[in-house]
Structures are given as structure tokens and as C-alpha cells.
Write a structure and sequence with these properties.
Blueprint: H1 2-8, H2 13-30, H3 40-74, E1 77-83, H4 85-97, E2 108-114, H5 128-155, H6 161-177, H7 185-192, H8 194-212, H9 219-238
Antiparallel strand pairs: 1-2
């Protein structure tokens, strides 16, 4: 198992370059509103904020990628994350044209191949269910990272703007990756199981709505809302009515 995971965690050269480019661009987008008016002091402040955002985005994207790689390796697969140029362009255009009011964070897609470790399995092919389960763990890891850090900051009575920024980026990054557009994680999940996708996306959308509209942090209410949406979806769509 240790050798299997070690092999699965490796990044090839293309992945390393893509990872660096993704982190550079997404961190620039995330720090766009913090660059000031354009004088020297503002530019210095902007660069400082970009560096801070670079580390926040770097850690978050790395957690996302590594979680999917470990999950895939355990199941006998190898994950490769490839740069999604359309996502980079859309993100840059959106943040510039809206002057930082809209930020889009998604610029890489997950692709799976069979490894030699899969040969002992009865089924050697990659099925849609495998794709969906592995894809899910990426956004889930970002939600867990952001929520855990924020919760512990509350418990310890330690309020930090950095923690807030880590939480905000992770929940938004997870949401955009859950969108059902290829090659995003959400597209893998949607094809694997529409029912499961509707439930996950509904619960997460409700979670974000509670946070940003009502300022309520509750997975319980988000889950209840997701079940209601799922029942309505099944009744009006899947059941044929």
C-alpha cells in the first residue's frame, strides 16, 4: 500500500509546470482587489498580498490534487491534472472586466489512467463510478480544510484575516470545481451519477448561500436543504412526471 500511494503521489514535469501556472494566475485573481490605486506604495502592497495569496492558493490546490491522487492510488489508478486554458482565460477576463467583483477559480482538470497495481483487480477498466468518487474527494478536501481551520480559530478565540482568506478561497474553489463542465470535477460526478451529483451540489450551494447571505455556518441545514431539493428533482425529473 505504501508503494502504491508513493507512486500515485508523483507529479510529472507537465503537472509541475501546470500547477505553478495555475497557482500564479489564481493567486493574482484572488489578490486583484488588493492592489490599490497604482502608486508605488499600492504596488508594493499589492505584490505583498499576491505573495500571501500565492501561498494560500498553492496549499489549497495542492491539497485538492494530492487528495485525488491518494484516493486514485488506493483504488489502483493514477491521476494526472492537466491545465485548463479556458478556465485561466475566463478567470482573468472576469476579474479584470468586473474590477474584481467576480472571481472564477478553476483551471485544471483531472484525468485517470490505469496503473500496474490495478492488474490484480477483477475489473481493469476505468468506469464512470470510479471517476466520480475520485473527483468528489478533491472539492471535499478543500471544504474540510477551510471549515476545519475556521472552526478551530473560533474554538481557540483566534481571529485572523489569513484564516478567513483561506476559508473563502477553499469554499469558492470547491464550488467552481463542482460545476458540471468538462474537465472539472463536477462533470465527472454528474456523468457518474446524476442523483449523487444533485445531492452534493445542492448541499454545497445551500452551504454557500447560508454563509454569504445569512451568515450562518451550518452543514446540517445545508444537508436538509439538499434532501428537499433532491426529492423535488427526483419527483419532477427522474420519475418522469
Amino acid at each position: 500500500m505504501k508503494e502504491l500511494i508513493k507512486e500515485g503521489l508523483k507529479f510529472n514535469n507537465k503537472e509541475k509546470i501546470s500547477f505553478l501556472l495555475v497557482v500564479l494566475v489564481l493567486s493574482f485573481i484572488y489578490s486583484f482587489k488588493e492592489w490599490g490605486s497604482g502608486d508605488f506604495a499600492s504596488i508594493f502592497t499589492g505584490l505583498t498580498n499576491w505573495v500571501v495569496s500565492f501561498f494560500i492558493v498553492g496549499i489549497s490546490v495542492l491539497v485538492h490534487h494530492l487528495t485525488q491522487k491518494v484516493t486514485a492510488a488506493i483504488r489502483g489508478f493514477k491521476v494526472e491534472h492537466k491545465l485548463w486554458w479556458n478556465g485561466l482565460v475566463v478567470g482573468l477576463l472576469a476579474v479584470v472586466l468586473t474590477n474584481g467583483r467576480f472571481m472564477f477559480f478553476s483551471a485544471a482538470g483531472m484525468f485517470i489512467t490505469t496503473t500496474k497495481y490495478r492488474l490484480g483487480y477483477k475489473r481493469q477498466a476505468i468506469d464512470l463510478y470510479d471517476y466520480g468518487k475520485i473527483a468528489l474527494w478533491g472539492p471535499a478536501s478543500n471544504i474540510f480544510l477551510g471549515a476545519t481551520l475556521l472552526t478551530w480559530s473560533w474554538i481557540l478565540g483566534f481571529h485572523s484575516g489569513i484564516i478567513d482568506k483561506i476559508f473563502t478561497f477553499n469554499v469558492l474553489y470547491a464550488f467552481y470545481n463542482l460545476l458540471p463542465f468538462p474537465p472539472l470535477d463536477g462533470s465527472r460526478m454528474f456523468v457518474a451519477s446524476r442523483i449523487n451529483y444533485i445531492f452534493v451540489m445542492s448541499s454545497y450551494s445551500a452551504y454557500l448561500a447560508l454563509i454569504f447571505i445569512l451568515h450562518v455556518y451550518s452543514f446540517i441545514w445545508a444537508t436538509i436543504a439538499a434532501y428537499v431539493i433532491l426529492i423535488l428533482y427526483y419527483y419532477f425529473v427522474e420519475s418522469g412526471y
